[in-house]
């Protein structure tokens, strides 16, 4: 009896700790996004901000999570926190235009699944998995721009996204929704937002106003020709149109002006204020912020000029406020700004390892200089070894293929990890320099031959000199 009572008290204490941590004040912000249709742009990138307006790229501007399922690419990520603050999910569109997929194929014959990652601490994430949200929608062509929000009325999460399908004789994108408790099992999908006539809608996002400033508990911004703002007191109930941003010269194309998409809400920490980020895709200028202290009227929005988005282009994503504990974990994992190095040849000391058109060689007088600059990262296959990440192509690594070297975008595969990992050992020609032994071919080392970088067995003095390098600033 005593033991059972103690277990109950311990359980109550742990629950209280979880709730207290979830109620801690917010001290920063985390943005999940993708960067575009480049070879590695359709993956998960993270950025951090202290004030919500000035952002720094995490992980030295390289992707943090890679999709190895479905189309092997993701766009439009949303990041979700559980009410207790003890679990997190990232959900994203399963789409990779960079693979050569046309927009028509993507919209009409694309994936009906979302890609899902799960974490208990924001820094250690599960392997990606597919969640088929639109498979039960008749004629569904895709599942794009997913979002999710916890619904306290039902104790579960509402996932909502856009699907292109025919309904009542009209084929267009509508917003559908489903319910889930674990982002694994879902209810049957249902139409959530359907604009009149042929007007489609792809991007919509909901933000909560806990004190119902403006008259509603929830507000949503949707890209439906305008950037339309609506309010409601229930997530799946009736929504009231509040207005749009056409008076600010901002639209989703219906009235021209600054044509934007991907509305992304950000509650401002510690204040009754919201920032709405809008992607200026038509001009390629990236996200811009507007702010409001009362979402009950679109006339309350104001433009912001003092902001910066870091070094990477940020496309449609999501922003989550961070507690101090969350912020510390995220920055300890991905906020380390690793030094920039060059790799100098031992026996041709005016030459450095560089990439040129994704081939790898040693050259003198490298221009642009960043072609010969790398960040030495923990090994992709073994954290005690090293991998070489390009400075001007974040997310690209030196790897061997058929014992030749290339600069290639990391694809998340075990083969890539092994090919791009090396053990740093005492230099074969001089112990004060370094040599780099292959992780998956330990009888071979990185060396130059006719100035080209190769992976070879080393059997003589010439080879030992060719396989010896200095790591310099």
Automatic annotation (TrEMBL):
InterPro entries on file: AbfB_ABD (IPR007934), AbfB_ABD_sf (IPR036195), GH43_arabinanases (IPR050727), Glyco_hydro_beta-prop_sf (IPR023296)
Signal peptide region: 1-22
One Pfam family this sequence matches: AbfB
Domain of life: Bacteria
Keywords: Signal
Alpha-L-arabinofuranosidase B arabinose-binding domain: residues covered: 342-470
Protein name, per record: Family 43 glycosylhydrolase
Phylogenetic lineage: Bacteria, Bacillati, Actinomycetota, Actinomycetes, Pseudonocardiales
């Amino acid at each position: 009896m005593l033991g059972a009572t103690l277990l109950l008290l311990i359980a109550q204490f742990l629950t209280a700790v979880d709730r207290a941590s979830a109620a801690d004040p917010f001290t920063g912000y985390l943005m999940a996004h993708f960067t575009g249709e480049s070879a590695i742009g359709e993956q998960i990138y993270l950025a951090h901000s202290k004030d919500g307006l000035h952002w720094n790229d995490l992980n030295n501007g390289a992707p943090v999570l890679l999709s190895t399922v479905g189309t092997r690419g993701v766009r439009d990520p949303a990041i979700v926190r559980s009410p207790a603050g003890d679990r997190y999910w990232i959900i994203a569109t399963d789409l990779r235009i960079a693979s050569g997929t046309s927009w028509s194929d993507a919209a009409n014959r694309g994936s009906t699944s979302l890609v899902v990652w799960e974490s208990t601490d924001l820094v250690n994430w599960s392997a990606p998995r597919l969640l088929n949200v639109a498979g039960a929608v008749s004629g569904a062509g895709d599942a794009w721009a997913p979002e999710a929000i916890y619904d306290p009325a039902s104790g579960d999460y509402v996932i909502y996204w856009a699907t292109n399908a025919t309904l009542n004789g009209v084929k267009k994108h509508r917003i559908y929704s489903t319910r889930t408790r674990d982002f694994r099992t879902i209810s049957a999908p249902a139409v959530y937002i359907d604009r009149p006539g042929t007007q489609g809608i792809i991007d919509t996002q909901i933000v909560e106003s806990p004190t119902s400033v403006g008259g509603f508990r929830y507000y949503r911004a949707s890209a439906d020709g305008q950037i339309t703002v609506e309010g409601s007191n229930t997530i799946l109930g009736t929504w009231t149109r509040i207005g749009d941003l056409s008076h600010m010269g901002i639209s989703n194309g219906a009235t021209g002006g600054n044509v934007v998409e991907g509305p992304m809400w950000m509650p401002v920490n510690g204040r009754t204020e919201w920032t709405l980020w809008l992607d200026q895709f038509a001009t390629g200028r990236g996200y811009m912020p507007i702010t409001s202290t009362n979402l009950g009227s679109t006339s309350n929005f104001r433009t912001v000029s003092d902001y910066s988005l870091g070094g990477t282009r940020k496309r449609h994503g999501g922003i989550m406020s961070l507690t101090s504990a969350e912020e510390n974990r995220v920055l300890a994992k991905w906020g380390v700004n690793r030094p920039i190095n060059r790799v100098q040849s031992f026996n041709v000391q005016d030459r450095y390892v560089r990439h040129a058109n994704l081939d790898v060689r040693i050259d003198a007088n490298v221009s642009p200089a960043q072609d010969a600059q790398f960040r030495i990262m923990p090994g992709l296959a073994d954290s005690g070894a090293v991998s070489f990440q390009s400075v001007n192509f974040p997310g690209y690594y030196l790897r061997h293929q058929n014992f030749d070297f290339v600069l290639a975008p990391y694809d998340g595969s075990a083969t890539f990890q092994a090919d791009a990992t090396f053990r740093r050992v005492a230099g074969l020609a001089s112990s004060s320099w370094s040599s780099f032994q292959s992780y998956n071919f330990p009888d071979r080392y990185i060396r130059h031959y006719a100035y080209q970088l190769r992976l070879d067995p080393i059997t003589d003095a010439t080879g030992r000199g060719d396989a010896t390098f200095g790591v310099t600033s």
